């Protein structure tokens, strides 16, 4: 076991993410304990959203501000609660504008799809979009690994 | 006509230098130059005719002859000065020595322009200044030498070079165009030396949005020469055009961009599994999008799973242990967490559960973990324990999950270490079914 302890990389994305995520989970857990423990669908949905937000937030904060996608994600999360409706309005309006202005769906440009998937990808040129996508994929895989291990650990 | 042009250019140089040191040249000197020029004019009538055909020649005045004469007398002195001060490519200078012999009827004119001319004419003079500045062997410089301002000439010349380069992108004159081929010819003599710089400067010019290739090449030469002592700005990207490829600034930038994109696509190809066979941007993009979508869905699903699993467990203790788990086996099945495959999968299943139970009993996870792992303690009926300890209604759901999951884990363990992906998908489907049953 000591070997494993030593092999921990304290500065890797994985450890940073794990720490933050577990902390967030603890917080959520405490809140859940305090509040009612109803198992209604709404509660489950809310809980799931909270955990997803916690996961995304912890991942983005583990990455830091070095990457555009993490910055965009953090911004989205931080302004989410305050300007939720406003942001949604803006995004839908922008989407409508884009659909009108852009070519019709005959153009199978997957670039726009990718832009939608990667946070903050709307405002990037193709070259940096690819770079952000690569980094985002790496972090997503890490996130999925960690969450899977946590889930498995706690579900057994 | 062509032969007249260099003279015209030289004349411009003269005027330019004079203009640069406009205050240095007195009216007397100019008049003297004009007189001399008049003498020369008689000798080279034909050349003058060609010049007079130009638009700018309309403003010629005989008084400018003296100016030119003055300048011509100091041919040798100027040569020395030019060699010292001019930072223009020496080849240019060598290629033009004979020009000094020719009379430059427009010298005075240019000088006059500098002296008296209105704004409209001045631009023309500037034009010629720009084109002339590239020639080093110009008698005009002699006049400046005459004025005794050597350092001034240097600065003037360099200024002119720099300024003319700055004006490159804005002005297109016949003189310039005529000058360009000659400059390029001279430049070609030293292709090896200039090419690298030309390419580099081309990229610089790209940022200045120059228009024509010729302009860029010629501007490059002068720019390169004038900025020999300047520190290279770090924000310029030095690109070298490959053999047989266009050296246009736009195409260069395009090529750089394309190379960047292809490099990143290759990196993505390594990242996304199963993309080795796919070539081409479109197919790769498709795969990448699918992969990102699947990863996002996976994270979402896992978060949902955690949401249900979450409440029963404490996390502060698990922090360290979880880290251990994760760091030990990043790719293997997560709940294994064991260094060796020797451990009985059954124990593996139960150990974490046991630890959890012990957590509930306020036992240190680490010690219990160690103890449990080393001493092959009999497996505790975990699911029942869980059920008893949990007080949440979700426990029933999770129980079902656990039993199924245990089966899954058994299967997976026997199969060996499987990649996380299919295992997760498998458990996902199982849990989805469970959810359906419950909901």
UniProtKB/TrEMBL annotation, chain A:
Lineage: superkingdom: Eukaryota
Domain (IBH1-like N-terminal): residue spans on this chain: 11-80
Record's keyword terms, sorted: Nucleus, Transcription, Transcription regulation
Localization terms from the record: Nucleus
CDD domains named among the record's database cross-references: bHLH_AtIBH1_like (cd11444)
GO cellular component: nucleus
Main localisation: nucleus
GO biological process: regulation of DNA-templated transcription
PANTHER family in the cross-refs: TRANSCRIPTION FACTOR IBH1, TRANSCRIPTION FACTOR IBH1-LIKE 1
The protein's name: IBH1-like N-terminal domain-containing protein
Native source species: Tetracentron sinense
Lineage: Eukaryota, Viridiplantae, Streptophyta, Embryophyta, Tracheophyta
TrEMBL record, chain B:
A molecular function GO annotation: DNA-binding transcription factor activity
Highest taxon, organism lineage: Eukaryota
PROSITE patterns on file: BHLH (PS50888)
Region entry Disordered, spans: 201-232
Residue ranges, compositional bias (Polar residues): 206-216
Residues in BHLH domain copies: 245-295
Keyword Metal-binding in annotation: no
Keywords: Nucleus, Transcription, Transcription regulation
Composition-biased stretches (Basic and acidic residues): 217-232
Gene Ontology, cellular component aspect: nucleus
Cellular compartment(s): Nucleus
Cited Pfam families: HLH
Protein name as it appears in the record: BHLH domain-containing protein
Phylogenetic lineage: Eukaryota, Viridiplantae, Streptophyta, Embryophyta, Tracheophyta
């Amino acid at each position: 076991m000591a070997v494993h302890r030593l092999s921990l990389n304290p500065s890797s994305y994985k450890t940073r993410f794990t720490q933050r995520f577990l902390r967030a989970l603890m917080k959520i857990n405490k809140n859940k304990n305090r509040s009612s423990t109803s198992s209604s669908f709404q509660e489950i949905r809310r809980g799931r959203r909270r955990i997803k937000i916690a996961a995304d937030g912890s991942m983005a904060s583990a990455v830091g501000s070095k990457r555009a996608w993490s910055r965009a994600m953090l911004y989205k999360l931080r302004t989410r609660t305050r300007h939720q409706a406003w942001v949604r309005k803006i995004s839908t309006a922008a989407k409508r504008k884009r659909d009108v202005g852009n070519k019709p769906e005959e153009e199978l440009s997957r670039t726009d799809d990718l832009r939608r998937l990667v946070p903050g990808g709307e405002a990037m040129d193709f070259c940096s979009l690819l770079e952000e996508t690569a980094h985002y994929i790496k972090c997503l895989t890490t996130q999925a690994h960690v969450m899977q291990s946590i889930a498995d650990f706690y579900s057994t | 006509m062509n032969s007249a042009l260099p003279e015209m250019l030289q004349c411009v140089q003269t005027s330019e230098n004079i203009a640069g040191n406009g205050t240095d040249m007195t009216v007397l000197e100019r008049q003297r130059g004009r007189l001399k020029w008049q003498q020369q004019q008689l000798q080279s009538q034909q050349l003058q005719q060609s010049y007079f055909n130009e638009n700018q020649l309309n403003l010629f005045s005989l008084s400018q002859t003296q100016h030119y004469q003055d300048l011509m007398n100091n041919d040798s002195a100027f040569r020395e000065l030019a060699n010292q001060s001019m930072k223009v490519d020496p080849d240019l200078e060598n290629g033009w020595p004979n020009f000094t012999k020719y009379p430059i009827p427009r010298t005075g004119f240019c000088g006059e322009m500098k002296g008296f001319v209105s704004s409209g004419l001045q631009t023309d003079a500037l034009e010629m200044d720009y084109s002339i500045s590239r020639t080093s062997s110009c008698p005009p410089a002699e006049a400046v030498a005459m004025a005794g301002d050597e350092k001034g000439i240097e600065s003037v010349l360099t200024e002119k070079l720099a300024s003319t380069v700055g004006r490159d992108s804005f002005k297109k004159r016949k003189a310039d165009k005529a000058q360009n081929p000659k400059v390029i010819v001279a430049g070609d003599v030293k292709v090896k030396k200039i090419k690298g710089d030309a390419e580099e400067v081309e990229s610089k010019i790209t940022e200045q949005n120059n228009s024509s290739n010729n302009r860029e090449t010629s501007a490059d030469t002068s720019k390169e020469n004038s900025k020999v002592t300047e520190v290279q700005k770090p924000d310029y990207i030095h690109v070298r055009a490959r053999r047989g490829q266009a050296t246009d600034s736009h195409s260069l930038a395009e090529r750089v961009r394309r190379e960047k994109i292809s490099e990143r696509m290759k990196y993505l190809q390594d990242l996304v599994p199963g993309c080795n066979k796919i070539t081409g941007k479109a197919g790769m993009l498709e795969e990448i999008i699918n992969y990102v979508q699947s990863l996002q869905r996976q994270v979402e699903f896992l978060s949902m799973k955690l949401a249900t699993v979450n409440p029963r467990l404490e996390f502060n203790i698990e922090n360290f242990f979880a880290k251990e788990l994760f760091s030990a086996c990043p790719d293997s099945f997560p709940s294994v967490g064991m260094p060796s495959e020797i451990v009985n999968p059954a124990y593996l299943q139960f150990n974490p559960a046991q630890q959890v139970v012990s957590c509930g009993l306020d036992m240190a996870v680490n010690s219990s973990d160690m103890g449990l792992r080393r001493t092959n303690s009999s497996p505790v009926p975990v699911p029942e324990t869980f059920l008893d300890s949990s007080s949440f209604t979700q426990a029933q759901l999770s129980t079902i999950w656990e039993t199924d999951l245990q089966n899954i884990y058994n299967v997976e363990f026997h199969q060996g270490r499987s990649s996380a992906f299919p295992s997760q998908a498998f458990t996902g489907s199982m849990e989805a079914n469970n959810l359906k049953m419950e909901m």
